[in-house]
Amino acid sequence: MIQDFKKFLSRGNVIEMAVGLIMALYFGAIVKSLVDHIIMPPIGLLLGNVDFSQLKIVLVKTSMEGGVEVPEVAISYGLFINTIITFLIVALCIFLIIKAYNKMKERMEKKKEEAAFVAPSKEETLLTEIRDLLKKQ
Q1: Domains (ranges, CATH) in the chain?
Q2: Per-run averaged pLDDT (10 residues), the chain, 137 residues
């Protein structure tokens, strides 16, 4: 079982998958920063100086009870809006990458098919012409 696990880890696919996951993690962080710090501030400004990260519905306010601070209970719908926008941007980027990959793959397959196509020999061409002439008679 340990040998199988070592074999599994030594395959190139596992390493590629790990690199892909790390890249995706940091890509997501970049997009989150883009949404939170670049996209949402101008949108908030256009909507009357609204900070989306601070939009929330307070259910229970912060209070002091018996010398203990009771934290606020709130529904932070502004953060949810930011998360939705982040998701949409990541989904669009993934869509564009997959679309480009599929187009590239299609071109490569077409080139392979063109390379695999072999022109008929002189004898085959001559026999085809003879056959066509005989069909006309």
Answers
A1: 2-136 (1.10.1200.120)
A2: 76 76 88 87 85 87 81 90 88 89 90 77 87 88
